[in-house]
Design a protein that fits this description.
There is one protein chain. This protein is elongated. The protein is α+β, with helices and mostly antiparallel strands and about 130 residues long. It has two helices and nine strands; from the N terminus they run ββαββαβββββ. The strands form three sheets. Strands 3-5-6-7-4 form a five-stranded antiparallel sheet. The protein has a two-stranded antiparallel ribbon with strand order 1-2.
């Protein structure tokens, strides 16, 4: 059975759903770790919104603290998959002050092109020129 946003099931507010339907909605409060990479390998322009992440209760406290410490000592970050606002995103888990920060990542096509915003620069001969890539 599935609950609507108004609360627990009651007459007229309850609907039967298949397990596969609920798995597709991406509303679980779970972070799925896909792998680990060195933190310096991540281009900061790819990072979007930060969120604080905490353990899911007392049984998870020790594992959470161990993950925070291991990431801080090694300089690694977790690449993970998470549902944020009912949308599945790729994100990073980074340690910060004994906590974990989850930062969603932007896809390459979501990054804005700076266009011709780069300033002109002076060449060694003293004339101004446009930067070349």
């Amino acid at each position: 059975m599935s609950w609507d946003a108004a609360g627990p099931p009651s007459a007229g507010r309850c609907a039967a759903t298949a397990r596969s339907d609920t798995e597709r909605t991406a509303t679980r409060h779970v972070v799925e770790v896909l792998g680990f990479v060195p933190g310096q390998d991540i281009d900061p322009i790819s990072c979007n919104r930060p969120y604080y992440v905490g353990p899911g209760g007392a049984p998870a406290d020790r594992a959470f603290a161990l993950l925070v410490e291991a990431l801080a000592r090694t300089g690694q970050v977790c690449v993970c998959k998470v549902a944020v606002h009912s949308r599945e995103r790729i994100a990073l888990l980074r340690p910060r002050h004994g906590m974990l920060i989850l930062q969603t990542l932007l896809w390459q096509d979501e990054l804005r092109n700076p266009g011709d915003l780069a300033p002109s620069r002076r060449s060694p001969t003293g004339s101004w020129s446009s930067p070349r890539c």
